[in-house]
Structure formats: structure tokens, C-alpha cells
Amino acid sequence: MQVLSIVAEVVDNSYLESRILQMRDSIERGESILRTAVATGVFNPVVLQMVAVGEETGEIDELMSEIADMYEREVAIEVEGLTAKIEPILLVCMGILVLILALGVFLPMWDMASIARGGAGGAR
Questions:
Q1: Helix residue ranges, H only, the chain
Q2: Rg (CA), the chain
Q3: How far is residue 106's CA from residue 100's CA, in Å, rounded to a whole number?
Q4: Which residue, among 20, 48, 45, has the nearest Cα to 34 in the 3D structure?
Q5: 44-77, pLDDT tens digit by residue?
Q6: d(CA 58, CA 104)
Q7: Three-class SS of residue 17?
Q8: CA dist 24 to 13, 29, 36, 63, 71, Å?
Q9: CA–CA–CA angle 10, 41, 59 (5° rounding)
Q10: I want to staple 54 with a disulfide (CB 3.0 to 4.6 A). Which of 13, 16, 63, 106 is the partner?
């Protein structure tokens, strides 16, 4: 019960917080963890299956640890994919910034050179 209360406080999402507190209340009334997890509608079928196996075997703590590892791997994969998608966009943005800076430096120099050539040619 304490773990679910702590998790509810740590979660930044108010919807998930209310669902976790709902789970805690149902478990306090004596319902099974699986039944309360299904009722929340938050967990995917793989997690629910692992919770069911954990309740039957009495090793729910080990299976919850495996679920946490699974989610950590999924997050790592998603972050790598997001990084791969953002990298080309950042390269294009950096290229545009370098182009703007280069034009800011070279355009005045070209204007001065054209004025110098035009002024020298007009004096002859």
C-alpha cells in the first residue's frame, strides 16, 4: 500500500495518479492486484499477464522488476529513434544558421568591392 501511495505522489500525470490511488484502494479492500490493474485500463496485456503469473507464483516482486526493465529498454529504444529523427533536422538548422552568418559577413564585403570597382572605373 505504501509503495502505491509513493508511486502516486511521484507520477506527474494526474490521470495516472488517480488510477494508482484507485488501485491502492481496491487492494486495501482485498481485491487482487490483477483485477485492480485490469480495472484501471492503464496497463498493456503483457504487463497484465506478468502480474497474473506473479500473483500465482508468489514472485510478483521479481516480475515487477522484469516489467520495469522491459519499460526501460523500450524507453531507450524510443529515445534512440527520436535522436535519429531529430539529428537531420538539427543539421539543416545549423546549416541555415551558418549560411545566414556567412552572408552577413560576405555581402557587405562584396558590396564594398563592387563600390570600389565602380568608383575606380568611374574616375578613369
A1: 2-10, 14-28, 33-40, 45-57, 60-123
A2: 31
A3: 10
A4: 48
A5: 898 889 889 988 888 888 888 888 899 899 999 9
A6: 70
A7: helix
A8: 17, 9, 8, 19, 22
A9: 70
A10: 63
